Amino acid sequence: MTTARASSELGRPGAWWVIAGAFVIYFTSGGLFNTATVFFKAIAGDLGLGRGVLSGAFSLGFLVAGLAAPLWGSLADRRGAKAAFLPAVVLVGVLCVALSRVTSALTLYIGYISLTLASAGISLVPVSVLISRWFDATRGRAMGVAFMGEGFGAMAVVPLAGYLVAHVGWRTSYVIAGVGVVAILLPVVVLLRNAPEDTAAGGAGEDPAASDAVEPQRPRAGLPSGRAATDSVGASPNDADPAAPIGARRDGGGATRGEAMRTPVFWLVAATWFMAMTPLAGVSLHQVPFLTDHGFSVESASLAAGMVGGTGILGRLVFGLLSERLPIRWIYACCYLFMALGIAALAWTPEMGVVALGTYVTLFGIAVGGAFALAPLQVAHLFGVRALGEVFGLLGLAATLGGAIGGAGAGLLYDRLGSYDLVLAVAVGMSLVATVMMTRVQRPARRGVAAAS
């Protein structure tokens, strides 16, 4: 990747404002998402629900968010990310307040599923579409910086949620969350600019004249028209070359949804994400209940969960930068290996105390942060950005299904066995399997040409 090309992208009018806006969106939505583990035991105790039943509500919400992701992604693909952000912000704020009024398992399920359906509009898929449309050569670092927002959000919001739950209760905490989401995100989204090509295509809420602020890309010297220089690892000529891997096409090109789904690697990525997200979601949802079961206070357990998000900042930044220099599949596999080691450390926390807990916070946080930063980069690398929102959303369904099974399964096993021992053992094993599977993921070739790493 040439310095001139990177400087050109980052120097475009509004580029850094886009990264900053994406950061704030992910700070807020990521912080809210990560509070589920904090609210868990308070809601269960107030409504008299078992952990399996309550886990089912969170897991179904997680699944519905995944099912909604392709819809929000398609909207972002067609009209620009801003068209997804605006209604989602308002709905999330209203539904957080509504969730504070639930009185039974049924109303909890309805409220939480509705909330997660709306929150998918300010989550990974539309944010990834926004970044991918604005950046190409610097996409990795732009994603890394933007997705650091979730880490900072978790580090700030999760401990705050623990404090609020302990002092004012979970219901008032959800009201505060709803008001906060609207107050923070609505001004940001109103001022946010879609990518110039989205504006030209009629993206919502944009001034058509704004597209003139960014010059169209021109052919590089020495390259025929329609060809682009490729600087990132594993990149190749764009689709002007009929034998190029389908993910190598640039300037908004790449595979359609159908093309992507007809490749074996699409299904391998789906299976790998499923295998990894099952333990990741199960542990993330039950980490605070696990720690409080072993003598930690809600506030101290929430602080540890928040620090997982804090160490995730390092994972997002480092792995985002490494993705521009090394094959994504190998650094992605390292994330899953770190996840397995971190979960093993959590299992030893009752015996080893703060040392094991600190190891868990560091390794698991780095792994989760890196994995979420690499996910959209891997999809763009494999299939291009033409239908990034739809393809990413569909692959996310597999991860979402795994997450739903992981969260609900952990709760059901706890209710049956009275401990999380088996849950953590299975989580370590699944993380190791996902590590091996990820090493087999390679960019799909066209017309029989060998795939790139």
Task: Describe the structure in brief.
The protein is mainly alpha-helical and 453 residues long.
Report on the structure:
The protein has helices spanning 3-10, 15-33, 36-47, 51-79, 81-99, 105-119, 124-134, 139-168, 170-191, 196-200, 257-261, 264-293, 298-322, 328-347, 349-352, 354-383, 388-417, 421-438. It has 18 helices and no strands. The chain has a single domain, classed as MFS general substrate transporter like domains (Growth Hormone, Chain: A), CATH 1.20.1250. Helices cover 73% and strands 0% of the residues. With 453 residues, it is mostly helical. Helix 2 (15-33) runs parallel beside helix 8 (139-168) and helix 4 packs parallel to helix 6.
Query: β content, as a range?
Result: under 5%
CATH architectural type: Up-down Bundle
Q: State mean pLDDT (0 to 100 scale).
A: 81
Query: How does the helix and strand content classify structurally?
Result: mainly alpha
Span between termini: 17 Å
CATH superfamily (homologous) name = MFS general substrate transporter like domains
Order of H and E elements:
HHHHHHHHHHHHHHHHHH
Largest sheet: none
How many beta-strand segments? 0
Unreliable stretches, pLDDT < 50, 5 or more residues?
200-244, 447-453
CATH topology: Growth Hormone, Chain: A
Q: What's the CATH C level?
A: Mainly Alpha
What is the count of helical runs? 18
The geometry reads as globular
* Structural Rg: 21 Å
- Number of structural units classed as domains: 1
Helical fraction equals over 70%
List the helices and strands and how they pair.
Layout: H1 3-10, H2 15-33, H3 36-47, H4 51-79, H5 81-99, H6 105-119, H7 124-134, H8 139-168, H9 170-191, H10 196-200, H11 257-261, H12 264-293, H13 298-322, H14 328-347, H15 349-352, H16 354-383, H17 388-417, H18 421-438
Helix pairs in contact: 2-7, 2-8, 2-9, 3-4, 3-12, 4-5, 4-6, 4-7, 4-17, 5-6, 5-7, 5-9, 7-8, 7-17, 8-9, 8-13, 8-16, 12-13, 12-17, 12-18, 13-16, 14-16, 14-18
